[in-house]
Specification:
alpha+beta, Peptide Methionine Sulfoxide Reductase, Chain A, six-stranded mixed β-sheet, 10 strands, 40% helix, globular
Length: 222
């Protein structure tokens, strides 16, 4: 059967229309996504906590707040880069709001501790909320005031301007549920088990429960 020029043109037009619709849908999907970057001590723990939240699309471990481009984990934890361990939370605003995520975040950490978090000490383990515009800053400051009022003490978690978020290497992503084997003081363990042992030994959940009581959303669940 011979295909005429008219049929070829019609087919090409149909393909172009389909491609345009796909692109429009992709753009619409991207526009509907929100992004929040927070630092709450060990990024494995923050990632694990927020992956449980309905409406969160992805939680990605990485670094923010420093001056060194594309830093490594060793560089950041050694100090001197200015980076904090951070997590970039991608979410669906139709299912969970930025304000709700900020409220949850402050109740998963010790926002009264300026020297690190739990057993992890030093600048790279300190807390922060990163913002990209004045509206995000207002929401963050409101969340901090509410947390301070609930605790009855000062919250030292700062609001900082986000420059660049640098994703951590693949080794650190989804650490809390990885079956990869690592060597620990308890012998070879899966990453998931090593994470659980670390979280318990570090006292994260115990401190969060002591500080926030029933308002702690994830303590004891990981």
């Amino acid at each position: 059967m011979t295909i005429g020029i008219r049929e070829i043109k019609a087919g090409m037009l149909a393909l172009l229309i389909a491609a345009a619709l796909c692109l429009q849908g992709a753009r619409a999907g991207a526009a509907e996504r929100g992004m929040l970057v927070v630092a709450g001590g060990c990024f494995w723990c923050v990632e694990a906590d927020f992956e449980k939240v309905a409406g969160v699309i992805e939680a990605e471990s990485g670094f923010a707040g420093g001056t060194v481009a594309n830093p490594t984990y060793k560089q950041v934890t050694r100090g001197g880069t200015g980076h904090l361990e951070a997590v970039r939370i991608t979410f669906d605003p139709a299912r969970v709001s930025r304000a709700d995520l900020l409220r949850l975040f402050l109740r998963t950490i010790d926002p009264t501790d300026a020297g690190g978090q739990f057993c992890d000490r030093g600048e790279s383990y300190s807390t922060a909320i990163f913002v990209s515009d004045p509206a995000e800053r207002v929401l963050a400051e409101e969340a901090i005031r509410a947390a301070s009022a609930q605790l009855g003490q000062a919250v030292v978690t700062p609001v900082r301007t986000l420059d660049t978020f640098w994703p951590a290497g693949a080794y650190h992503q989804n650490y809390h549920k990885s079956s990869g084997i690592v060597l620990t003081r308890f012998g070879p363990q899966s990453k998931a088990r090593a994470y659980q042992l670390y979280r318990e030994a570090c006292g994260r959940d115990a401190r969060v429960r002591a500080l926030w009581g029933g308002a702690a959303p994830f303590a004891g669940e990981s």
